[in-house]
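#onboarding

Welcome to the new folks! Below is a worked example of what a typical request in this channel looks like: someone posts a single protein sequence, and someone else replies with the predicted structure as tokens. Don't worry about understanding the tokens yet, we'll cover that in week two.

Example request:
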Amino acid sequence: MIYLSEKQAAEHIGVSRATVIKWMNLKDNPLPYFKWGPRSIRIVQEELEQWLEQYRSEKKIEKLADIKSA
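Example response:
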């Protein structure tokens, strides 16, 4: 399993760290993450990729850039 910080997750998929944090705070279907100590979080790479595919299909979004504004 590969664990990513917000910054690493953002770099992995080509968005900003702020976008990843926004996705983690969505009311409906937020990006899954867990706390890794008192001041940091981690995102499982496989869960990130699954979440993106699900989000794309639910919102009928073709390009990753369009998810930012959805």
